[in-house]
């Protein structure tokens, strides 16, 4: 069996392809069957003069998404999708699809979401999934080739990491309640003290009550954590990482970006160095643009968009008011009102893709924060141990996979950036 992506190697030869009918049209003695096999699409031409009467009639039975096997000669044809065409000699139907619900006409988004299990077969969704996969590989390659060790954190956890308002709760035998992890970071910190540089990469959960295009309740996050890195080292790594992902996709997923009609000129500019501004400078930008905002508040999606419009590539905003950030962040020694935090904001209105910080490495300070945030100290004893036994400065960040996919693909909403999205109002199919 040959795959459509390899047809260039078979020009002039007879091959057998297997797949599904994407589309078809006919005119008298000719039937044009567009076959997709998961690796690409190709037009198969059934000419009445080349095949038996029975086979010509059999081919007419094919409906959209019916599965079939087809044998023919590969011809080069630049005008066709994929650059090839198949001159059909034989054809076998595997299974007829009756009334496939997603037709070439326009469908509403809720209808498509209800049929997500079928929608993933369509061309744009195919392109997005192939870009997502390549981004995942780029992420792994980036860390694996820089001395990082993959360190898998648990998903079932006894406490919150990123605030208690977005915790998913589950009963847990005799131990009472457990929670789905919001972030692997605290465990990654233990890993960094053992292995130096680690990363976690897996699903994380937030009971987000927000119904925005940027929020899922289940999303994937990659979290590097590095011993002996300060905030500047953290930012250096973050910009090198984002540049690597974007440039890799530009090189390796050209066809998919074309299918998505992505304007890649904006992505081509994603090169180091990225602008770095403090939170206070970001607030000044908002003021200058007459965008209402008060120093001390957290930056929301709309604020981020206004700030990002000032720059032609991702912008790093550092040193936020500690009050709006997580308990584990180290305070700025020059102004303890500020946390040594960094958020990376994607261009074109895609908002925050990275959140990170230098971590509080002083035992007493950290204890104080846990109390201030009203967190149950008993569940953090192991985390405090990391400060008791050879504490060192360390930093890390988390990159949201779906936000990154959505930005690179130019999508309107995160729901198309993951095979089966989970949102406040949807947990099917
Ligand atoms: O900024 P966040 O909450 O940071 C953390 O979880 C840290 N513990 C990371 C670390 O320092 N190791 O989340 C990190 C990123 C965000 O920038 C965003 O890209 C993504 O995770 N994210 C979401 N993506 C989709 N849906 C949601 N509800 C998301 N919440 C965060
Ligand atoms: Mg954040």
Topology:
Layout: E1 14-27, E2 30-36, E3 41-47, H1 53-60, E4 67-76, E5 84-95, H2 109-114, H3 116-119, H4 123-144, E6 149-150, E7 156-157, E8 169-171, E9 177-180, H5 185-195, E10 197-205, E11 218-227, H6 231-252, H7 254-259, H8 265-268, E12 276-278, H9 279-288, H10 301-308, E13 315-321, E14 331-332, E15 335-346, E16 351-358, H11 363-372, H12 381-388, E17 394-400, H13 401-409
Parallel strand pairs: 3-5, 6-10, 12-13
Antiparallel strand pairs: 1-2, 1-4, 2-3, 4-5, 7-9, 8-9, 10-11, 11-17, 13-15, 14-15, 15-16, 16-17
Helix pairs in contact: 4-6, 4-13
Salient structural properties:
429 residues; nine-stranded mixed sheet; five-stranded mixed barrel; binds 4-amino-1,4-dioxobutan-2-aminium adenosine-5'-monophosphate; binds magnesium ion
Whole-angstrom Rg = 26 Å
Shape: elongated
What are the bound molecules?
A: 4-amino-1,4-dioxobutan-2-aminium adenosine-5'-monophosphate, magnesium ion
Straight-line N-to-C gap: 32 Å
SSE topology string:
EEEHEEHHHEEEEHEEHHHEHHEEEEHHEH
